[in-house]
Amino acid sequence: MVDQARITSGFSAGPVRRHPGPDPYADAADGVDILGPGDLREHFPYITDKAVGAVHVRRAGWFSAQQLGAWMVDQAKGHGAELVSAEVTDIHVESGRVVGVSLSNGASIGTDTVIAATGPLSRPVASMAGVDLPLYSELHLKVAFKDHLGAIPKEAPMIIWSDPQQIDWSDEEREELGRMGREDVLGEMPIYCHGRPEGGAESPYFLALWEYHHETLEPTWPLPDDPLYPEVVMRGLTTMVPGLAPYLEGLPESTVDGGYYTKTRENLPLIGPCGPEGFHVVAGLSGFGVMVAAGAGDLLASHVTGRSLPNYAESFLLSRYDDSRYMAEIQALEDSGQL
Ligand SMILES: Cc1cc2nc3c(=O)[nH]c(=O)nc-3n(C[C@H](O)[C@H](O)[C@H](O)COP(=O)(O)OP(=O)(O)OC[C@H]3O[C@@H](n4cnc5c(N)ncnc54)[C@H](O)[C@@H]3O)c2cc1C
Question: What is the pTM of this model?
Answer without folding.
Answer: 0.90
